[in-house]
Amino acid sequence: MGEVETALKRILDLEDVIGLLLIDQDGSVLRNTLPEEHAKKYVMEIPSLTIMCRSAAREIEPKDELQMLRIKSRKHEMIVVVDDKFTLLLLQEYPGFWIEPPPPPPTPPRDSDDEFFDDDEDEDEE
Fold this sequence. Notes:
Belongs to the GAMAD family. The structure is a single chain. By secondary structure, this protein is of the alpha+beta class. The protein is about 35% helix and about 25% strand. The protein has helices spanning about 5-10, 35-60, 120-125, and strands at about 15-25, 30, 70, 75-80, 85-95. A five-stranded antiparallel beta sheet has the order 2-1-5-4-3, sandwiched between helices. The longest helix has 25 residues, at about 35-60. The protein is extended. The model has no long low-confidence stretch (mean pLDDT about 80).
């Protein structure tokens, strides 16, 4: 097994890793362990995302170069490693990122809606 295969296996053996996708600069899939429908979406979207981020990094610091993106959502974390020859996408579980909001405070119980009406007004009108 080559160095690359050993490194990919070590990554895939990590507890929270869902899968990885390795694509070349032409968008051809070199290695995929994600479900096929997900891989197709990532192959379509990741290149444009990396181009935008690479451009933003150069705008901020012209001599700097984009190397990695890290994107977190409620359930997953996506790590994209960018190179001139390939792009590696790693998808992993990230349960600790999303904090559920606290439940709303309880409303006090009411016996009836009658207490909200003023009975004195009804008596004055008669």
